[in-house]
Amino acid sequence: MDEGFNVTYIILGGHVEVEKYRYLYFVIILTVYFLIISCNSTIVCLIWTHRNLHEPMYILIGALLINSVLWSTVIYPKLLIDFLSEEQTISYPACVLQFHMFYSLGGSEFLLLAAMAYDRYVSICKPLQYPTIMSKSTISILLILAWTLPASQLAIPAELIANTQLCSFTIRNIFCNNTLYKLQCIITTAQTIRDMVILVNVALMPVFFILFTYIRILRISYRSSREVRKKAAQTCLPHLIVLTNFSCLCVFDVITVRLDSDFPKTLRLIMTLQLIMYHPLLNPIMYGLKMKEISKHLKRLFTRGKQC
Predict the structure, then answer these.
(1) Predicted TM-score (pTM) above 0.90
(2) Which of 1, 48, 213, 240 has the greatest CB tally within 10 Å of its CB?
């Protein structure tokens, strides 16, 4: 590639033997993307069409599933194109945009999970005040904040990255994540501090808030009746499993930049695929099968389909 091409385009160097397995990769990723869209959309449609699911808890679940589809759409279409292309490249502005959208929607995931934890806390710990506290206006505000706060905070580093000088034009990944920083000639202390503050705001603080609310829920449930404990387990366990899974994958995403040279290329690819494949599929499984009301509507839907 000539110098002018390298200035404009970034090489995605995380692919492994694309020439040999391109069609296998394409079929697998296309199948997973179809499953992500269909599974998440099915539950969102159920929540939309059934009035008994028009409650704050289910509305927040629907928002989380929509976020999963958007998060996957940031990655999968470009990934499918790359598998069928001779060269796996992306223009630098598009790479910065993908970086921004990937982490913005990732931050929205944490904030939506925090909103769901707050909803469960009010429901179990303050049941008489629940209709007043978790009103339609409250839910609307929580959803707006969940999608705008991460996007607005990450717009600053994205803008700075877009205008920075590059000393490398190859990233060791299959899409543009924080490995984008490895392309920069210099990473300043101020930049590192700013990014740490953003990480605390969009990820660590929501996680700490979730853990705090669930500790309170567990303490109150332990002192309450068996019925209250059962309700707490049914509604809180799926959230904790999703949170744990997503947090572990995000920790890997951060660590790979710090230990860039220590990760074999194949292992990096496998872990990256787990990040983008398992989590968007885990959400509809957990909330579709573990949430009693959604599970009942799903059973009716598939029973009706078999009868037809």
Answers:
(1) no
(2) 213
